[in-house]
């Protein structure tokens, strides 16, 4: 077990299976020293635990927890092409999309769920640049979607 996966276990988390693509794309692509993930939904065992807009059907706290799940799914996607999460030199960028009710403006707090998980798991290597964007709707009516870009150490 890698040090990163050991840290996940200390946090009571396990790395899930990679979420299969919903359309014509790959969950992650390795290019040079970078891995780019596709947008990861908060799928748990092949299903969304909740659907709807944040600030309407979904609370900001529920959505923050869902963003953590998205980040965990993103780490699984990274491992699928990098082979070992210990190769992560740093998380470079996180982009979070929040399906928002028209009056909801707390997107940064929701995406903190992903950012905080990455920092808990990777320490300083998990600190990153980020965008948190409110959108009208996401695939499958998911409340949140997260993509990450990581830099790898040489194999």
Give keywords.
155 residues, alpha+beta, 5 strands, 23% strand, globular
Brief summary of the model shown:
The chain is of the alpha+beta class.
Beta content: 15-25%
Q: Measure the end-to-end span.
A: 17 Å
Helix content: 25-40%
Residue-averaged pLDDT, rounded?
97
Largest sheet: 5 strands, mixed
Q: What are the segments in which pLDDT stays under 50 over at least 5 consecutive residues? A: none
Order of helices and strands: HEEHEHEE
Question: How would you explain this protein's 3D organization?
Answer:
- With 155 residues, this protein is α+β, with helices and mostly antiparallel strands.
- Helix content is 30%, strand content 23%.
- It has a 5-stranded mixed sheet, with helices on one face.
- Strand 3 (88-99), helix 3 (107-122) and strand 4 form a beta-alpha-beta unit.
- Helix 2 packs across helix 3 (107-122).
How does the SSE layout of this entry go?
Layout: H1 3-10, E1 28-31, E2 34-37, H2 60-82, E3 88-99, H3 107-122, E4 129-135, E5 144-152
